[in-house]
Every structure is written in structure tokens, then in C-alpha cells.
Amino acid sequence: MSERKVLNKYYPPDFDPSKIPKLKLPKDRQYVVRLMAPFNMRCKTCGEYIYKGKKFNARKETVQNELYMGLPIFRFYIKCTRCLAEITFKTDPENTDYAMEHGATRNFQAEKLIEEEEKRIQQEREEEELNNPMKVLENRTKDSKMEMEVLENLQELKELNQRQAQVDYEGMISQYRELEKREREREKEEDERETKEMLDRALVKRLRDSDSDSEKEEESSSTKSMKSSSDKPTDILTTDKPPEVQGASAAGVKRAKTESWERSVGTLGGGGALGSLVVRKKPAVTVSKPSPVVTAAAPTSQRDSKASTADSANTSKPVATQNGSSSLSLLGAYSDSDSNDSE
Fold first, then answer.
1. Which of 3, 92, 182, 284 would give a disulfide with 99, using CB separation of 3.0 to 4.6 Å?
2. Where exactly are the structural domains of the chain?
3. 3-state percent helix, strand, coil for the chain, nearest multiple of 5
4. Is the pTM of this model over 0.70?
5. Residues annotated within a binding site for Zn(2+)
6. How far apart are alpha carbons 265 and 239 in whole angstroms?
7. Cα–Cα distance measured from residue 128 to residue 137, given in angstroms and rounded to the nearest whole number
8. By the 8 A CB rule, do 238 and 263 touch?
9. What is the DSSP letter of 291?
10. Binding-site residues
11. Alpha carbon distance, N-terminus to C-terminus of the chain
């Protein structure tokens, strides 16, 4: 694949450069170039000021029959920005500058005038020294005398400055050391203040944590007291424990949980608060009678024994109390009364 931007061109073997026709262009032909105004100028037609650096599309041509040490001189044509009058200027290689030619005047430049005056004086002096050797000696003595005066004036100015300055180097060093010491003290104070602030923040945080812990403990104790106060005042009457159980509980034995129905109703134990409400049935006193017929007494005794066994079965079931025991005394009394009846 061929390149897009070709740098080398192909020349065939039978290429003859002498056959290429040459263009005959005029020597004073003009080119359009883009340039900036080389100096400040004023148009002669309308008086418009054109400042240095303003851009123009100018026409450039080579000046015929004008050379400076083999260098060609070029002329430029521009138009005024206001009246479109033509202004021309050309290069000046002798002075490394541009020379105004037509259509405008160059503005005053004091620096350029001074340089031109100095150059003129230097040329006149060289011409005099070239023809008069005594003038050369006079000029040298004048130059040496002027140089000595300049050196003396410079030395006087230096001494005057030293007298007025009176620089104290020791004082400057001590002042610098004092300033450095103050800077170190200030940095040390800042470090101490920062450490103190950090410690204060840590202490405040610890105090807040301890306050929160104490508040939690107070809340837990208040909740416990509220729970204990929520119990009924009459619960103490319904609780019945023997002294040995109470002593064991005081020693650290876990207390049995009381049911809600036991708090309101109580137990039927003999030693409790409601034990006095239970009335025991007293055994009845019976007199035995002899049976007239032995044969007839047998079936009745069998019926009585069956009835007594049924009653004893019904009454033999234990009654649950708070302490988990049955009222054996009550069952014993019932069984004695049944046996006496059967007899």
C-alpha cells in the first residue's frame, strides 16, 4: 500500500531535466505577505496614527539596482486603515532598521536620535585622529582624566554609604537567634496546648461513659423496685413456708415460683393462713348389734364391704396443696367412719 504523504518522487530512467521548460518571471514581481508595522507612523492623507505591531496584508517587492554589501533591499506596500491610502517603507540593513519612504511620517523617537548623535560624534573624532596625531594624545589624556574622576566619585559614594549604613553584624546575628528561639517556644506551646486539648477530650469522654453506666444501673434498679412494688400487698399472707425452708432460702437456695392462682386463693394446708378454714369431720360413736341370722348377714356384709371399698377408692385420691402434700389425716378420719358403719 502506498503512503499518503509521499516524500520521495519517482524519476524514470529516461528523465531529462533539460527538457523541463523554465518560467520567465519578471524580477520586480510582487508577493503578498503578512507583516506587522515596524514602527509608529502617521498617515499624511487623513492623519490616522498607525502603531507599531499592527498587522497588514502587504505587497513585497525587491528594489532594483540597490544593494548593501550584496544584500538585497525589499520594499513593502500597505494601506491606511482609515482612508486606504498607500504607504511604503523599505528595509535598511545598514542600520538594522526600516526606512520610511512614502505616504506617512515616522513618529518622534528620542532613543533613536540619541544613538544617531553619538554615532556622528564618534565618526568626527575618528576623522580628526586620523589626520592629527596631537589630537590623539589630547583625547587620550582627556579620557584618562575623566576615568580617574569617575573612580574618585565612585569611591566617595561608597564611603558615604558605609558611614550612613553602620551595619551591626553582631546585632543582626543576635536578633536572628532571638527570633529563632521565639519560634521554637511558640511551637512548643502549640504542641502542649494540643496535647492538653486531646487529654481533656479523652477525660470528658470517660466521664460521659461513666455517667451513662450509672444511669443504666439506676434505671435497672428502678425497674426492679417497680417490679417488686407491683406485687399485691396480700401476697405475704398467702405465702406459707416452714422455718427450715425459709432458712435454706436465706442461705442461697432458689425460691420456688408461686402460681397466680395460689396468690389469690391460697392453699389448703393445715399450717397455712387458710388451714383454719378446713373443718375435720369427727368420727361418730356406733354400737354393734348381733345379727339374728348368720346366713342372712353374709350378703349384707358383702354389699357393705363393696360400698366401703368404693368409698375408700373415691376418698383415697390425694388433694394437691401449695407444698405438694396430701391431707392424709382427713382421709384417715373418713376411712375410720366407714369401717365403723360397715361393722
1. 92
2. 31-107, 109-187
3. 50, 15, 35
4. no
5. 43, 46, 80, 83
6. 11
7. 12
8. yes
9. -
10. 43, 46, 80, 83
11. 142
